[in-house]
Amino acid sequence: MLETTTQVRALTAADVPVLRELLDQDPLVNLFVRGRVDASRLQTRWLGGEIWGYFEDDELVSACHAGANIVPVQATPRAIEAFADRALRENMRPSSIVGPRSAVEPMWEILEPHWGPARSPRLDQPFMVLEHDPDIRPDPRVRPVAIDEFDLVYPSCVAMFTEEVGVDPELGNRNGYRARVAQLITQGWAFAIIEDGDVLFKTEVGAATSYACQLQGVYVRPDLRGQGIAAAAVAAVVEQVRASVAPSVTLYVNGHNTPARRAYERVGFTHTETFASILF
User: Which terminus of the chain faces fewer neighbouring Cβ atoms within 10 Å, N or C?
Assistant: First the structure.
């Protein structure tokens, strides 16, 4: 019996075609990495890290985004071990490991003795998809945020990030976070309900390909929660991004957040995969 030859190496621009074929095996789940590949073409200065490829007999079998976030792609058990070993050898300290739970959990089992304990392990995050018009009437007040509304919307972005992630983004790279919010607004990827100078609801498209996009940072002002605002507002965002960004819309949510899950289900999202996130 011949032994399989394996290798892990950083992918380059020459690998983009075969990497895209791998990513397109599951274009919705692999949306984040595909978007990064399309935007950077694996140029390090734009990617902000590397994408590792796991090869068996010179065939690309799995991949892993390795930067501020570690994101496994189509990762087999042997690839997971190889990626974890490389991360340890390179002494990485990412902010998170994110992806399908079937890959994140075994990777974390290897890394936890060296990197643990995690600040926030989230092992049940339904990944939800909507590939048609929303099931409920959209809120007509939702619209793209204008760049001159940055100072108005930015505090809600900070509040949502702090509430969801558990860390104030302004305590780290404040300028980087502000630039990211401004970039999303400029792209037309930030949406909100703004009345009398107050942000009642907001969300953004965090990543997109020609096939699908992913919503992030869904936020309703705390005193307005429980009134059914989120579902109709998200429906409006879905309607608008399907017309201007991509035909399929995805998001993932913490499993314990029952109100959010019910709101997304009302809009028409269905649970198709389970993600996990390990936050450091």
Answer: N
